[in-house]
Design goal:
The chain is mostly helical. The chain has 16 helices and two strands.
Amino acid sequence: MNAEVKIASELRRDERPRSAVSAMVGAVGFAGLIAWLAVARAFEYSGPRASLCAVLACGVPMILWSILVDKVHRNPGNGIDWQAPPRPLSASLDYSLVKIAGLWTTWAAIAFLYGMARWYWSDPYLFTMTVFGWAAVPLLAVSVPYVIWIDRRLVDPRDGAWHFGQLVIGRSALADREAVFEHLRCWAIKAFFLAFMVAIVPGNWFEAVAPRSDQIAGNLGELTRWLIAMMFMLDVTFATVGYVLTLKPLDAHIRSANPYAAGWMAALICYPPFILMRDGGPINYHPATLGENGWAYWLDGYPLLMTLVAFLLVALTAIYAWATIAFGIRFSNLTHRGILTHGPYAWTKHPAYVSKNLYWWLATLPFFATSGDMTDMVRNTFMLGVVSGVYYWRAKTEERHLGADPAYRDYADWMARHGPVTRLLGLFSRRRAPAPLPAE
């Protein structure tokens, strides 16, 4: 009997840990987005408003599937008790009013910082500011009944917004400092990244919708560029949905924001206005490379090799998009919103970073330079190596953050044994144990 129990235990240990998000959530979002894309291409809806409709077409099916099929609102991790009768309004209203004071003050601070930061008032961020301006009044109006409603059902309504609200109304003795900092970190992440995602949604949508079918089918290069643009459009649209829907009833709330300064630094230097890889940046690897079109320039005249590289580039960006789609409604940087174990996350813990960096190396070919200058070739290769190092650093800071969750440690342990990419990389990083000293 003991042997059977041991075998059963080993079999359970070798099972891939359950993913926090079902694969069907991303699948229905993908279907909704592709359906709207087909309509948009047929009627040439390539403008900014059509791109916002794409976000809705992607997000609404995922919300419906999550609630009606996966029933995520009943997950115990969201802190909502649906079994017990709601609190009397008289018992929860004080919590709600304090929380609303905290939320509105947070939003006012974000609006002030948007106003002070000059980059938000030039393209492409002007579109974001316009959208946020439209959304401000409805958001303020809806927040009141929403907070009152959910506080009657939360097991503990004293969350970060409540603690910050206590600070706002002058009851600092009741405010937990760590809860306040966590609240501010979560909203800083959402404010920064959502503004960026909304800003780039229209451009990515245009690149997917505007090209005519005859242009796309004209040659291999045009087809490849359009397919890559499609993958980036999928990534950006799903990411935007994820930053919007940080809601407890959807079990998509932020469990924790990365508390480590190194994690924030590693992430922020990859995004404007702090990005270091752009033209003129200290780790710019683009001079004399023709950017991400370098592959088409250098491989022109080698049709077989060009076709192979084109296929690989599309495959890499497809994996990159899939890594975002797999999150469903939970994508965001620098946060813990549940551990994913399905899709490309069954291959490696960081499929987006691996595929994105391989894409840059293959698309740019930094070891060639149109200037013919060996210095440019060496410098560009070195700088792209530094960029890849930055993403390795990001991965490690994320693992440090998520490692506080036993579910992530179980996933990392399973990946070390079964993840094909993780095991392959482990062969290069594993250190040999030192040989024992001879006995005297």
